[in-house]
Write a structure and sequence with these properties.
single chain; 269 residues; mainly alpha; Serine Threonine Protein Phosphatase 5, Tetratricopeptide repeat; Membrane-bound Lytic Murein Transglycosylase D, Chain A; 2 domains; two-stranded antiparallel sheet; globular
Length: 269
């Protein structure tokens, strides 16, 4: 417990320094991020934070990210709110710090946030239960969640595999043409069209109905620096269509700002 208290005090102190840095606009190349702070919703969230309405500030920052997922400063502010009392939700703090590191370009702020990530991870480790049985239960729960996610992704990937043999089936009759028998004598030639027609009809009846077109969705593997708006711009040519992707992946994404590299997202068509 002593380690936990020290880790939290260090994290809180460092967060306070980072707040001063963000408020002063220090660091190079941070002009775009400074402009992010001037958005009315960002100013509203900051006012709530200064009034010690932590829950109101968190809700406002998250609503801003719902509309503008690529706002780096909203992530770092949320990270600091989760990192401190009364929330002390270190796992979420680490998530938002890392999202800032993916999106942010202000060099000085990145240095502070990298330190905040280290402190938050230490605080999270210190907050873990000492009982081995509790840790085992937490690991089992995580395994169940991972299995559920794999089951959600599997139906999207499965239809792609049967498509390949279709080309082979369409091409396979070609060799038979080379071994076509010689023409029949004239006496039996008249009966040939009727027989051929019957065979064709039988073949048509026996042929299974064509498989439906490839499922009206595809997948996309998230790259570093991607947000839902960036992905929507890539796949639809319209960054404002990000909500279509979010709605199709709510089982994987707790909120629109939770996109992480290497995630496999369903892209509805």
């Amino acid at each position: 417990m002593e380690f936990s208290a020290k880790a939290r005090r260090r994290g809180t102190a460092l967060a306070a320094v980072a707040v001063l840095c963000l408020g002063a606009g220090c660091g190079g190349g941070g002009g775009d991020e400074a402009r992010q702070e001037n958005h009315p919703m960002m100013r509203r969230a900051l006012a709530l934070k200064r009034a010690n309405d932590i829950e109101g500030a968190i809700e406002t920052y998250q609503r801003h990210l719902d509309r503008y997922p690529g706002t780096a400063r909203a992530h770092v502010q949320l990270g600091m709110l989760f990192d401190q009392e009364p929330r002390e939700d270190f796992a979420r703090a680490v998530y938002h710090y890392e999202r800032y590191l993916e999106l942010g370009r202000d060099a000085k702020t990145r240095e502070y946030v990298e330190e905040l990530v280290k402190r938050a991870r230490l605080s999270f480790a210190a907050s873990l239960p000492d009982r081995p049985s509790e840790a085992i239960r937490m690991i089992a729960d995580l395994k169940k969640e991972n299995a559920a996610l794999r089951q959600q992704i599997q139906p999207v990937r499965a239809p792609a595999s049967p498509a390949a043999p279709a080309t082979t089936a369409a091409v396979s009759p070609a060799p038979a043409a080379a071994s076509r028998p010689a023409p029949r004598p004239a006496a039996t030639a008249a009966a040939a069209p009727a027989t051929t027609g019957a065979a064709a009809r039988a073949t048509t009846l026996a042929r299974p109905s064509p498989a439906p077109a490839v499922a009206q969705a595809q997948t996309y593997t998230v790259q570093s620096g991607d947000t839902l708006s960036v992905i929507a711009g890539k796949v639809y040519g319209d960054p404002n269509a990000w909500r279509r992707i979010y709605d199709a992946n709510k089982g994987l994404l707790p909120d629109p700002g939770s996109v992480r590299p290497q995630q496999v997202l369903v892209i509805p068509r």
